[in-house]
Structure formats: C-alpha cells, structure tokens
Amino acid sequence: MERQTRRGFLGAAAALASGRALGAAERVVVGVIGCGGMGSNHLRLLAARKDAEIAHVCDPDSERLARAARSVEAADRPAPRTTGDLRRVLEDRAVDAVFIATPDHWHAPAALLALEAGKHVYVEKPCSHCIREGRMMVEAARRARKVVQVGTQSRSAAHVREAVQALREGIIGDVLVAKAWNSQKRANIGRARPGDPPKTVDYDLWVGPAPFVPFQPNRFHYTWHWWRHFGTGDMGNDGVHDLDIARWGLGVDVHPSTVTAAGTKLFFDDDQQFPDTQYVVFDYPSGPGGRHVQLVYEQRIWSPHYQEGHENGNAFYGTKGMMVLGKKDGWQVVGEGNRPGAKGAGALSVPDHHTDFFQAIRTGRMPRADIAEGHLSATLCHLGNLAAHVGRVVRFDPRTERVAGDREADSLVGRRYRPGHWAAPREGA
User: Which end of the chain is less crowded, N or C, counting CB atoms within 10 A of the terminal residue's CB?
Assistant: First the structure.
C-alpha cells in the first residue's frame, strides 16, 4: 500500500495538542510503564520535578514494581499506584502522559494503546520493533493529535544541537558522508535452557503480543536486547542514538533507497541472535540540494577501543573539512590542511529531554524528537539488521516503505504477533 510523503506525515503535525489543557503551573500526571534500567532512571528524574506527578508505575515483575514505588516515596512524593498490566494505567482519565520503558517488542503496542486512550507518549528508543510499526505510530499520533517524544535524548543536548546547526551553516561545506559508530565491550549472555520464570514475574504479560516462547534466563531482563522476538540488537539498543545524530547532521529527512550490510558474530560464543560486529552503508540518491549522500555505520560490541576518542560518536565529512562529534561530550572541526578548527563542549541531559516533552504537551508544539523523526531513525536500525540478516543488498522504496523484488526481505518490514493477543497492533487502528 502506498504511504504518504514525508511532507505529509511530518507536516501534518502543525497543531498537535488536543484534550485537557494544562496551565503553566499545573503538574503533568504521568504513568511509567516498565521499571527496569531506563524506567528507573525516568522515575528518579521525574520524582525530582515539580511539574510532574507520578500517578502509576507498571511492570510485570512485582519485585521491580515494589522497588520502583519505594523510590518515588523515598523522594518525598506520594506513593504511586502499582500494576503489572498497562491497561490499568491507560484507563485512568487523570493520566496525561505515559513513559514507555519496556523491552522493544512492547514499545509500539503500548504507545498505540496509549494514543488510543488519549495519552501523550514518551517512548524509549527504538520507537518500534519493525518498520511497519513505526509508520503506524506516526499515523496514530497524528490522528490523536498527541505529543509523542522518542527517547533519543541527544536531540536535547545543547552541544549536539550546536554542532548540527554549525553543519547547517556550512562549517565544513556540503556534508557528503556521515559516519556513526558503536564501540564498547558488552557482556557474554552465555548459553541457557528454558526453565521456570521467577515467581515475582507474570511472564505471560512480559511476553505480551510477541510470539510466545518459554522463559529462558538469558532471554529476559536486559538480555532480551539480543533476541529477535524481543529486541533489535545493539544497533537498536545504543546505535540508534548515533544513527539519529548522523541522519540529523547529514540533513536527510527521508528513508534511504539502498542498504548494504555485513554483520556476524566474531567474538561472542553465546545465544545472541544479532551480530556483535556490523557494517552498514545507507545510500540517499537525492540528499540535501539533490546531492547523492551516504550514511555509514560501524559496530563492534566486543571492543573497548574507541574511535576518535569517543565510545559512541559521529564523524561528518564535507567538501571543506570534517567534524567529529561525541554524543556525550563535545565536537571538533578539522579544516583544510588537517588544521583544528572550531569546537564545542557539552554533555547529555535526560532532564532537558523531559522538559522538552512537557513543554510540547503544554504548548502543542512539536517535540525535538517527534515520532516522525524517531521512525526515520529507527528504520535505519531495522534496515541495517534486515540487510545483515538476509545477506544481500536491500533496495528500499522510501515512499511505500517496502523492499522491492525480495520477498524474504520484504516480509521483515513487519513482524509476527501472538494470534489474538489484545495488544497486537491493528493497521489503521
């Protein structure tokens, strides 16, 4: 089915806010869905805000849930209600917004249900588990006229914004190539057999709309990232931040047309289903000014040796120089003759990203990491994983969001759901 143009789904967001109007001094009532690492971080930061009220915390692991509730009370805030089922959060009309920090396979289903219930959404990265879900999220957000902010917090980092603005102003000339890298030492997840889930866990709720598989200890908390039913590999886990910055700095606001990838496991001898080493080239035949531009991604999650002094980062290559950008610290231009040029320093700030989300809710303006931008960047992860999985060049139609002439690759644009599950997304819903 033909999809609307980029101008259609980005431009349709001119007037977002609908529903209850919030005064400048009124607290945003929130529910936090998912109380693991990122969910706990969101709770800690939200509990410190005067403009937020945490009404609910939700997690299918009752041990995590109790710990999350205690953390809110320890910050001298009222005790939130607790539940393992996100539907209890969404049925509360007092809730203005939800923070979704679940495993990847729950991101889109939870967000779509939240939008249907009239809530604003902050969803962790990657916003979707497949390309089709991302499109559904954009369309649902526009229908609901709600703010959907994606957790790519670099969009709110002052030094990253400063660097991208410098690129726009031509500090290195026309940017022709953007590079993103993910270099860090991950842990071996080992090999395991199915067994009984912890007694504190409602495992059926945890699996949710994904195809049901038995509980396995290395396919659960955090290690779900490296299983195809639940995660998107490290490209979707951490690489998405750098891909988002690369695409932003390159100035492309459409999908790539051709994706070439090589990925395999060179280091880990374990149950991981995604590559620990991955190289992807994304081709944009009609980039800014009609130029042919490229985005290049490198991943080695077994190596602590950084590129250009940054664990995760970006390099932009232009007609008059290059720029190196570290998402956590700063940027440096190298000009003609390899002479150091302008530079800037900074740091990531999740609280600033929260502030942007709340301001967007109050004013009805676009958030910095709007769902349409999140969809474009998450699609890079999905296409990179897809191309590495099938082992051949993928020719992607940016307009229809389908893979031309390759039935196997095209089947991976979507995903399978558990038959009849209440949270399984429905096209057009």
Answer: N
DSSP 365: P
Which residue, among 377, 367, 369, 348, has the nearest Cα to 45 in the 3D structure?
348
C-alpha count within 13 angstroms, C-beta hemisphere, residue 343? 11
Q: Which two tokens stand for residue 255?
A: 């999908």
- Contact between 367 and 149 (Cβ < 8 Å): yes
Q: Which residues fall within 8 angstroms of residue 335, CB to CB, at 6 or more apart?
A: 172, 320, 321, 341
What is the pLDDT, as a whole number, of residue 21?
61
Angle between helical axes of 371-390 and 240-250 (0-180°, round to 10): 110
Question: Quick check: 209 and 416 in contact, CB under 8 A?
Answer: no
Side chain identity at 264, as an amino acid letter?
T
* Confidence at residue 426, expressed as pLDDT on a 0 to 100 scale: 85
The side-by-side arrangement of strands in the sheet containing 148-150 is 81-83, 52-58, 28-33, 97-100, 120-123, 148-150
Residue 267 token pair? 């280091």
| pTM of the full structure | 0.95
Query: CB atoms < 10 A from the CB of 74, how many?
Result: 10
Rg (CA), the chain: 21
Q: Is the dihedral of CA 400, 406, 409, 414 positive or negative?
A: positive
Q: Quote the pLDDT of residue 321.
A: 97
Q: Please give the Cα distance from 274 to 255 (Å, whole number).
A: 23
How is residue 120 written in tokens? 């604003």
Instruction: Specify the CATH class of 6-154+351-371 in words.
Output: alpha beta
Averaged over successive runs of 10 residues, the pLDDT of the chain (429 residues) comes to 46 55 79 98 98 99 98 97 99 99 99 99 99 98 99 97 98 98 96 98 99 98 98 98 98 98 98 98 94 97 87 94 93 92 92 98 98 99 98 98 96 97 83
Q: Are 72 and 177 in contact (CB under 8 A)?
A: no
Residue from 160, 42, 186 nearest 101 by CA: 42
Q: Give the number of other Cβ atoms within 10 Å of residue 80's Cβ.
A: 24
Domain limits, the chain: 6-154+351-371
Structure tokens, 358: 């709340």
